[in-house]
Specification:
With 323 residues, the protein is an alpha/beta fold. Helices cover 46% and strands 10% of the residues. Helix 7 runs parallel beside helix 9 and helix 10 runs parallel beside helix 11. It starts with 20 loop residues before the first helix and ends in a 12-residue tail after the last helix.
């Protein structure tokens, strides 16, 4: 199935709700229960043979193929976009009966948005820009808002912003709400992904509170990490955030997406995250409208696994080059 056919029906964007501090302060997280759940979760469902190949293809369709390096150039961004259009070798896709398969989005710094937009023209693949003082979020607010607006003007359809961690650590929930709401307004029609930098928020309770506040302020997605922290995407963080999404959906009717990012390099990890979505949120969150995997090197390992399924042999990484 082509990734375009995986899109969920348009149920309306999350327009946000007024800040509900009673809801935020009522949050309780049992760390030991979270750890038990994630430890047993993966043993509850196994994906093998043709089903594993299908799930891996789904992971590709949900992937934000990313380059966020200091030495990025127009050439390597164009190569990344070419890989986004054709993420798996043609012979493998033909053997799998999946022609026309592509990734969910390409994610770059603002400097390369226009380059990526041009390279992806006509493909249906959106460009996401990291913004708002990425990765630390320490620049002045007016500059962070201006950066978002510039990226949208350059053609970015999705904006990955970073929150101010100090607002979470200091319990300034009203300040966090106002910040994310301002980012959402600056995005206009572009979708807002709020990066929580979960590894820097100290507690799982803070992660769940920050998730709720970001959604109340209108975030279309909540995202674990920038990929630059010491601790990035973990299943414990993912479980807490998924349950916040479920609670928000139950109370408001809005479906908010989820994006783990940082340290996801092996095909098995992509299956783990899809299993988490399946078990905690259900089938709609296994599609690119509501689930993304932030990754770069992950794609190579998925390609190797798909070649093994088709041929029975594992290949060297160089047979599946990345830009």
């Amino acid at each position: 199935m082509n990734p375009a056919e995986l899109r969920t029906p348009n149920l309306g964007r999350n327009s946000g709700i007024p800040l509900d501090l009673d809801w935020v302060e009522s949050v309780r997280v049992n760390r030991s229960a979270v750890e038990r759940r994630t430890a047993t979760l993966l043993g509850r469902r196994t994906v093998k043979k043709q089903w594993q190949a299908a799930w891996l293809l789904r992971a590709i369709a949900c992937m934000d193929l990313t380059t966020l390096a200091g030495d990025d150039t127009a050439t390597n961004v164009r190569r990344l976009c070419a890989k986004a259009r054709f993420p798996v070798r043609k012979d493998l896709l033909e053997a799998l009966g999946m022609p026309g398969h592509h990734v969910g989005a390409v994610c770059v710094y603002h400097e390369w948005v226009s380059t990526a937009v041009e390279a992806l023209a006509g493909s249906g693949i959106p460009v996401a820009a990291v913004s708002a003082g990425f990765p630390h979020g320490q620049s002045p607010m007016r500059l962070r808002l201006a950066e978002i607006e510039e990226s949208v003007a350059a053609g970015a359809q999705e904006i990955d912003i970073v929150i101010t961690r100090a607002k979470v650590l200091g319990g300034d929930w009203a300040g966090l709400y106002d910040e994310v709401k301002a980012f959402r307004e600056a995005c206009g029609e572009a979708h807002l992904k709020a990066i929580l930098a979960t590894g820097e928020l100290a507690t799982l309770r803070n992660v769940q509170k920050a998730s709720l506040v970001a959604m109340m302020a209108g975030a279309d997605f909540i995202k674990t990490s920038t990929g630059k922290e010491t601790v990035n995407a973990t299943l414990d963080f993912g479980l807490v955030m998924a349950r916040a999404i479920r609670d928000f959906n139950d109370r408001t009717g809005y479906r908010v997406g989820f994006k783990p990012a940082g340290g996801i390099r092996a095909a098995k990890q992509s299956l783990d995250w899809l299993i988490l979505m399946k078990e905690e949120l259900g089938d709609p969150w296994m599609k690119p409208d509501l689930f993304r995997l932030g990754a770069s090197s992950l794609l190579t390992d998925i390609e190797r696994q798909l070649e093994h399924f088709v041929t029975g042999r594992y290949s060297a990484n160089h047979r599946h080059p990345m830009p």
